[in-house]
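Ex. 9. Protein: Plastid long-Chain Acyl-CoA Synthetase.
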Amino acid sequence: MEQHGDVFATLHKWLDGLHRHASWPLTDRYLQTYLIPSALTVLALTFTLALWSLLPKRLKVRGAPVKAAGPNPGEARRNKRYLAFLETPWDGAETLASLFEQSAKKNAGNKCLGHRRVIKREEFFDEKSKRNFEKLTLGEYQFQTYQQVFERVERVSSGLIALGHKPRENLGIFAETQAGWIVTLQAATRQSIPVVTVYASLGDEALVHALGETEVKTVVADLKLMGKLVKVADKLTTVKRVIYFDDINPDMELPKMPSSWHIVSMKELEALGEKQPAKPTLPKPSDLAVIMYTSGSTGMPKGVMIPHAAIVSASAGVLASVPQADASASYLAYLPLAHVLELAAEHAILTLGASIGYGSPLTLSDQSPKLQKGTRGDAPTLRPTIIAAVPAIMDRIRDTVNAKIKQAGFLVSMLYQIAYKSRLAQLESGAEGFGILKALWDLLVFRRVKDILGGRLQLIVSGGAPLSSDTQRFINIAMGCPIAQGYGLTETCAIGTIAEADDRSVGRVGPPVASCHVKLVDWPEGNYRTTDRPFPRGEICIGGPVVTRGYYKNEKKTKEDFSEDEDGVRWFHTGDVGQWHPDGVLEIIDRKKDIVKLQMGEYVSLGKVEAALSSSPYVDNLMVYADSNHSFCVALVVASKALKDWAGGKDLSGSEVEEEVKKSLQKVAKEAKLERFEIPTKVKVLEEPWTPENGLVTQAMKLKRDPIRKQFKEALDKMYSK
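Predicted structure tokens for Plastid long-Chain Acyl-CoA Synthetase:
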């Protein structure tokens, strides 16, 4: 059976299916009867918007200055609405254990965690790839209430103690995102058991490193991942017990396991806990809750030590930044829970008392590759109001929809552009009072786009990497909902800044979240200083209760990246460079590690250039490379579907295709106002996508520069030797 890896890498499969199969009922008759007359009416309103946009607007201050202590206080900001750090969502909720128990009591009858029952599984053999593929028929979502989930948490918690796992011994979770994952975490917190998180797609070496360094005694794993554990069993010298989830793939056979391991299923563990209830050993706020291994864009992943207080404060801060969310919200979970963005998002939802429906990128839409024909996708079935997504996912949705519109013909394409530009003018003018425009275009044009993700979305939470302005506007317009674009890191529990819903600007990541302060400190080597005007600039530092303890068994790196001021505030030095806008909103402009000095003295920010060039329709992914011994930079470009369609079977490495790509990059570079020396002079087009499985990007789709440089050294050298 096909083994699927990381969710970020597999999402392009259902997007390709969407591109091939989506239907757009924009016939000529439909155009003549409804759309064209409506378009004329809307154009008149658009002209009114243009006049409205000329009126002066009052600046809304979102982040306020705050005095920071320490030898380098920098330019610090806090959330305008909060004078002090927001540490808990309410009194008494100071740990993950107390937070969930109290939320479960307050929201006992509310829907909590849901999954889809597998009605039928069928296997197919693909002659071309010589591999077996599974197709699923799925039912509706089935939910347990908060009370039912809490009772399950208590059974699992007692079962762990009955099985022999002791409080404060590390427990590892090696599984894909599912209800059992969050139940296991909550169960562990009730016995003061720290949880070690590892990605389901982690390689053997990194898996052994994470479980070995933390001396994990018990591993909770997916049944389909048990084979990977067995493969490295001789190197997992501290593991004594393995618990496997048996509700997702109950038909799969358990592989032959080492005799030294005690093997039980989750159902057996729950039954054991019900027979032998154990008194909880509740944690303190300062106790370790999670050791989260980062995605490892440079070298072996590091374990970030996250205390209970940090995650609780992060949840409180997120909810303060998105006050429109309440207990009626429905959240679709499909990103890895081993990623801090998903972990923070799900705990915020549990704090609200809202519902979480679990899905998969392979079953997300109606055209997803793992679904039997006629089976609805997770998003159309659940119809969520909130999802979290990384920019790479939203970029692909945008490219897929735009390509489909172009294929639909001239009239459809023209009408779509009219609708899009009309909504764009409305957004940028701030004329929210003209809601009839949005309603008309949503009904006539954008409804089918919104239906891709269920049609009820009210908020998309974005993080993990910079989001391009083109994609942000596409989501605002075509999906019809705001994006809470945030900035944070694993070391700060995904918390730093979050854009507010009424901020219609692009390219910025919002004011500080209520549970932290953000400051900029001088970085003279990069010529960034807090005295710069009109925008103070410098390295971004995040301080407050969301900042974690540091790196597990890595005191040297901890001292390099973390500090504590005389007021006792803990700070993390991110290595990113930002600037403050007059309204107290942060913009990410650079990264210290990604700056290269060219032969003639110019500085090139690789990340900044890559973010700008990624808006080219020909780019699925790219890496800009600069050699300090030369006066120009070059680029490796992974071909998008649009480029492959344009090439029409031509050799992608040929000069004709490369010239076409260069023209496209030069166009978007000009629009982004890049300097001439920042624009790649030469490009190498690649056909094979970069995925976590081939080791060229992280699980969050961030570039692994060193592996890419090594793998394509010959191509890079050749571009500089020509």
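Check your answer against this statement. The chain has 21 helices and 28 strands.
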